[in-house]
Design brief:
The chain is an alpha/beta fold. Helices cover 45% and strands 15% of the residues. It is built from seven helices and seven strands; from the N terminus they run βαβαβαβαβαβααβ. α3 packs parallel to α4. The protein starts with 6 loop residues before the first strand and ends in a 7-residue tail after the last strand. The structure holds NADPH dihydro-nicotinamide-adenine-dinucleotide phosphate.
Length: 243
C-alpha cells in the first residue's frame, strides 16, 4: 500500500460517491475524516487511518469541531470534498416548500460551511484543494428538478467565485458535475411517479453503466494532478445519457 500523509475530508461518506471515494483514497494510504449522519455505515468500512464522525453539514459548529479534531491527529486538511447532498424531485407548482429548504440548506449551505472551515488555513499555507460536488443539473435544467437545480446551479456559481478568491493563494477550487448515476440519491424523493419516470428514462436510453466508483476515481484523478494544475470543472455522465 502506498502511504500518503495529507488529510482528506469527505462529506456524505456513508453511501454513493462519498463511500466510494473513501475506499479509493484509503487504498492509497491517505488519512481520512469521513462525515455523514449515519456513522455506522462509515465505521463498517473499517478503513485504516480514518476518523468517522456523525455530522450534519448544516450544523457548522459540529462540522468544524470534527475537522479540527481530525487535524489535531493528522495535520491540516489538504483536500475538502463537499459531497453531501440530497435530491428531492418535484414540480415547483406543487412541491412542499420544506423539501426546497432541505435541498438549499444541505446542498448550498453545507458546501459553504465546508469551504469556510478550511479556506483560511489553505490560504495561509498557500496550498490545498476544495472539490465541490455539483451536478449536470448545476449547468442545465431538468424537469422536476426546480429546487435541486437551484441548489446545484448555486454550487456551480459559488465554486466559480471561490476559485477567484483562492487562486491568488495557489489553492484549487474545483467542481464536478455528474449525470445520473445509481446511488441512494433518488430514494429520498417522495413522489413515486417521479421516481418511476426517472428510472424508466435511465433504462430506456441505456444510461446504466456508469458507477459511483467511476465518479470517485475521477475526483481522485483531479486531486492527484500537481497543485499547480486545476481541472476546474468536470462534467461526467454515462456515455448513453442523452441530456
Ligand atoms: P447518496 O444519497 O448515495 O449519498 C448522499 C450522502 O450525503 C450520504 O452519505 C448522506 O449521508 C449524505 N448527507 C445527506 N444529507 C446530509 C447532511 N445533512 N449532513 C451530512 N451528510 C448528509 O447520493 P450520491 O452519492 O449520489 O450523492 C452525492 C452527491 O453527488 C450529492 O451532492 C448529489 O447531489 C451529487 N450528485 C449525484 C448524482 C447521482 O446521479 N447520483 C448526479 C449528480 C450529482 P447520511 O444520510 O448518512 O447523512
Amino acid at each position: 500500500m502506498k502511504t500518503n500523509n495529507k488529510l482528506i475530508v469527505i462529506t456524505g461518506a456513508s453511501s454513493g460517491f462519498g463511500l466510494e471515494m473513501a475506499k479509493a483514497f484509503a487504498k492509497e494510504g491517505y488519512p481520512l475524516l469521513l462525515l455523514a449522519r449515519r456513522i455506522e455505515k462509515m465505521e463498517a468500512l473499517e478503513l485504516p487511518n480514518t476518523m468517522c464522525r456523525k455530522v450534519d453539514v448544516i450544523n457548522k459548529e459540529s462540522f468544524e469541531a470534527a475537522v479540527r479534531e481530525a487535524e489535531e491527529v493528522y495535520g491540516k486538511t489538504d483536500l475538502m470534498i463537499n459531497n453531501a447532498g440530497v435530491m428531492l424531485l418535484g414540480d415547483i407548482a406543487t412541491q412542499d416548500a420544506q423539501e426546497w429548504k432541505t435541498m438549499l440548506d444541505v446542498n448550498v449551505m453545507g458546501v459553504m460551511n465546508g469551504m469556510q472551515i478550511v479556506m483560511n488555513d489553505m490560504k495561509e499555507r498557500r496550498s490545498g484543494t476544495i472539490i465541490n460536488v455539483s451536478s449536470i443539473a448545476g449547468v442545465q435544467p431538468f424537469g422536476n428538478h426546480g429546487a435541486y437545480c437551484a441548489s446545484k446551479f448555486g454550487v456551480t456559481g459559488l465554486t466559480r467565485v471561490a476559485r477567484g478568491e483562492m487562486s491568488p493563494y495557489n489553492v484549487r477550487v474545483l467542481s464536478i458535475m455528474p449525470g445520473a448515476v445509481t446511488t441512494e440519491l433518488l430514494g429520498h424523493t417522495t413522489n413515486q411517479n417521479i421516481i418511476d419516470g426517472y428510472n424508466e428514462w435511465k433504462t430506456s436510453v441505456g444510461a446504466v453503466s456508469i458507477t459511483a466508483a467511476d465518479v470517485a476515481q475521477t475526483i481522485k484523478y483531479a486531486y492527484e494532478l500537481p497543485q499547480g494544475v486545476s481541472l476546474r470543472e468536470i462534467i461526467i455522465t454515462d456515455t448513453m445519457q442523452d441530456a
